[in-house]
Amino acid sequence: MSFLAEIKTKKKNEWLEWGKAIIIAILIALFLRTFIFATSIVEGESMGPTLQDGERVIFNKLVYLIDEPDRGDIVIIQRPTKNYVKRVIGLPGETVEIKDGELLINGERYIQNFLTEEAKLQTNNYGPVTIPDENYFVMGDNRAISKDSRNGLGLILESEIIGKSEIIIFPISEWERTK
């Protein structure tokens, strides 16, 4: 084989290796996006101040296949017309009530460290309501304007919760884990 033929063969092999690497990277990214992680854009002010309108979050799709939502988790709820970002407040079998700005779960006061004092005071009385099996009670952190289990979304089926918000990725200045 001539010197030029060897160089052409090496270049061709190099391009094939690069092509394989790119295809594998794309397939891994598609797998991760489809089955493990995805992004969602926060629309509106209902999760403020925790999450702001226009922020993009990465959510974990795998976590609730091996575990169940827990109180305080910020979850992505899939509905036919749009997805919602809300916080899990009540779990299956619990009784939720809001009285004079205080959240009561099974009659006991629950401390909401993620809320501002103003948000607590703007929360209207609600309930009590007992949550059926396989359902969750969710609310936005900006209680005064949030469409949630109290006023429009109703109780959320476990199957409608498609992931747990993990990290704010946009804007870059806001990069942090969601709490």
Polypeptide structure, described:
The chain has 179 residues and is α+β, with helices and mostly antiparallel strands. It has a single domain, classed as Ribbon (Umud Fragment, subunit A), CATH 2.10.109.10. It has 3 helices and 12 strands. It has helices at 3-36, 63-66, 117-121; strands at 37-41, 56-60, 74-78, 83-90, 95-99, 102-105, 108-110, 126-130, 135-139, 156-157, 161-170, 176-177. Strands 1, 2, 3, 4, 9, 10, 11 and 12 form an 8-stranded antiparallel sheet that branches. The protein has a 4-stranded antiparallel sheet with strand order 7-6-5-8, with no helix packed on it. Strand 5 (95-99) and strand 6 form a beta hairpin. The chain starts with a helix and ends with a strand. The mean pLDDT is 87.
Topology of this structure?
Layout: H1 3-36, E1 37-41, E2 56-60, H2 63-66, E3 74-78, E4 83-90, E5 95-99, E6 102-105, E7 108-110, H3 117-121, E8 126-130, E9 135-139, E10 156-157, E11 161-170, E12 176-177
Antiparallel strand pairs: 1-2, 2-11, 3-4, 3-11, 4-9, 5-6, 5-8, 6-7, 9-10, 11-12
Count of the separate structural domains: 1
Determine the CATH topology: Umud Fragment, subunit A
**Rg from alpha-carbon coordinates:** 23 Å
Protein structure class:
alpha+beta
Distance between the termini: 64 Å
Can you say what the CATH homologous superfamily is?
Umud Fragment, subunit A
| Approximate helicity band | 10-25%
Mean pLDDT figure: 87
Low-confidence stretches: none
Report the strand count: 12
The number of distinct helices, counting runs of at least 4 residues, comes to: 3
- Level-2 CATH architecture: Ribbon
Oligomeric state as shown? single chain
- Quickly name the level 1 CATH class: Mainly Beta
Shape: elongated
Question: Tell me about the biggest sheet?
Answer: 8 strands, antiparallel
Strand-residue proportion: 25-35%
Order of helices and strands: HEEHEEEEEHEEEEE
InterPro entries: LexA/Signal_pep-like_sf, Pept_S26A_signal_pept_1, Pept_S26A_signal_pept_1_CS, Pept_S26A_signal_pept_1_Lys-AS, Pept_S26A_signal_pept_1_Ser-AS, Peptidase_S26
EC number: 3.4.21.89
GO cellular component, one term: plasma membrane
Membrane topology: Single-pass type II membrane protein
